[in-house]
Specification:
Length: 499
């Protein structure tokens, strides 16, 4: 595991020497190949949630929430690659060579006052700081579970290692390590699933146990560990799970990979690679939860039954420790580090680029040199990491809940606007501002307050906020005057442009 962390640091410093401009640092000069684009997009997407959050959810409650969420994510991944990736790659280059998402919004709508740039940058800072905290939390839980190290010191150490290689190498370092990390994650989940099935006594034993637990394998109910029986999992819950897929349209670190691929012609190949990886990974992660439940129920390997969401999220680690030889276990558990790092590096890079390239250069210091921009960017990386560490200080915080909040925020603030910006030329600047503010605000309010009112309001915040933002964009845009002929001509040119 130490060797693995040294490798990613080496990659970071290697690319640090090759970055000549801020464009190289933020988007890698748009040179990503199909494999790196696909694997870095999906590895940075799934994070520690794939190896800890999702298996833990399946372990604790069965198919219900975990299964419908996985299905929603698979559908969302495909639709994002199919409809958004190619057009976004073209449009961001046509629209004044936009190298960040705030850049694109500002250039697309000719936002001379940089209102969209400021709002989107602030939202990226807020939501990605929370998202990064979930990754740091996963690192702390990993080392606490394996070596009985203290949670807080190890969480901080891992955080600073991520900061070092990200701030040193920028986008290419993050993307290259994401490719390595994606492959390592694949090896980790498959080897743990196989050894888990063997130790549980075979697939038949796992299925037999799952069927014996009330509501565990049902599409329409879920297992309530507190009550020890099935609980209703109605239409609202299923829609909430599927609604996770909407988040893909607005998550900046995935959209940035679409912007950075070397040619729009490579998108189809990348989509095939990405979808293959996603479907296999999500299915295996859910199955690991089932296998873990069968094993702990029988007391195999001395693994105790886990009753809280925070404890359940360590089932992957416990299976690895109990059944794999130490050297192989080290490689497999490095997969969790990989999952965490592959997302945290992208998040930190997006936050720092929003501050350095969008706020500092475009708002406060328009004559800033590349050297000044990179200095501000790297300083921001350290500051954001420290704030994320403060958020992650509580070892009982749920990775799934932290990711859920950030995912909803991005999906509702940016998702509708991305779709309307790419596919409806009647969208106006005022409509864009209304949609971004309305979606982001409602997402937070729904997550923290409205959902607690119960009933139909318990639906995942991303769905109502996404719909609300879309309606705001349409209504405000139609009430506003039509965009200029220049903007409409640029929109039409994207369809015929080959990049």
């Amino acid at each position: 595991m130490a060797a693995y962390m040294l490798i990613v640091l080496a990659v970071g410093f290697y690319y640090g020497k090759r970055n000549k401009t801020s464009d190289d640092y933020f988007i890698g000069g748009r040179k990503l190949g199909a494999w790196v684009t696909a694997m870095s997009a999906e590895a940075s997407d799934m994070s520690s949630w794939l190896l800890m959050g999702l298996p833990g959810l399946a372990y604790l409650t069965g198919f219900g929430e975990a299964g419908w969420t996985a299905i929603g994510l698979a559908i969302g991944t495909y639709l994002n690659w199919k409809f958004v990736a190619k057009r976004l790659r073209k449009y961001t280059e046509v629209s004044n060579n936009s190298i960040t998402l705030p850049d694109f919004f500002s250039n697309r709508f000719r936002d001379k006052n940089n209102i969209l740039m400021i709002i989107s940058s602030i939202l990226i800072i807020i939501f990605f700081t929370v998202y990064t905290a979930s990754g740091f939390s996963a690192c702390g839980k990993l080392f606490a579970s394996i070596f009985d190290f203290k949670y807080v010191p190890t969480m901080i150490i891992c955080g600073f290692i991520i900061v070092l290689y990200t701030s040193a190498g920028g986008f290419m370092a993050a993307s290259t390590t994401d490719l390595i990390q994606g492959l390592l994650m694949s090896f980790a989940i498959i080897i743990v699933l196989i050894i888990g099935i063997v130790k549980a006594g075979g697939i038949g034993e796992v299925l037999s146990y799952a069927k014996s637990v009330d509501g565990y394998m049902s599409l329409f109910s879920t297992y309530d560990p507190a009550a020890g029986k099935a609980a209703s999992y109605g239409v609202i819950n299923m829609i909430s799970g599927l609604a996770w897929g909407l988040g893909y349209f607005g998550v900046p670190h995935i959209l940035l990979r679409f912007m950075a691929i070397k040619s729009s012609k490579e998108i189809k190949k990348s989509r095939t690679i990405a979808m293959t990886w996603v479907i296999i990974s999500l299915a295996v992660a859910v199955c690991i939860g089932y296998v873990g439940a069968a094993i702990t129920a029988k007391g195999i390997g001395g693994i105790e039954t886990l009753t809280t969401s925070s404890a359940a999220e360590t089932i992957f680690i416990r299976l690895t420790n109990a059944f794999l030889p130490k050297f192989i276990a080290g490689i497999v558990l490095s997969g969790i580090l990989a999952a965490t790092m592959s997302t945290a590096d992208s998040q930190l890079l997006l936050v720092s680029s929003s501050v350095g390239n969008n706020l500092y250069k475009k708002i406060f210091q328009k004559e800033a040199t590349d050297r000044q921009i990179l200095l501000v960017t790297k300083t921001t990386t350290f500051i954001v990491a420290i704030v994320a560490m403060i958020i992650a200080l509580n070892p009982d915080s749920s990775i799934f809940n932290l990711v859920s909040l950030a995912w909803s925020g991005f999906g509702s603030a940016f998702g509708p606007l991305i779709l309307f910006a790419l596919f409806w030329k009647r969208t106006t600047l005022k409509g864009a501002v209304a949609g971004m503010l309305g979606g982001g605000t409602l997402s937070v309010a729904w997550s923290l307050y409205i959902c607690k009112l119960g009933g139909i309001l318990e639906v995942y915040s991303l769905l109502p906020a996404f719909i609300f933002a879309s309606l705001l964009i349409v209504i405000v845009s139609l009430l506003d005057k039509e965009p200029s002929s220049e903007i409409q001509s640029e929109f039409d040119s994207v369809e015929t442009t080959e990049i």
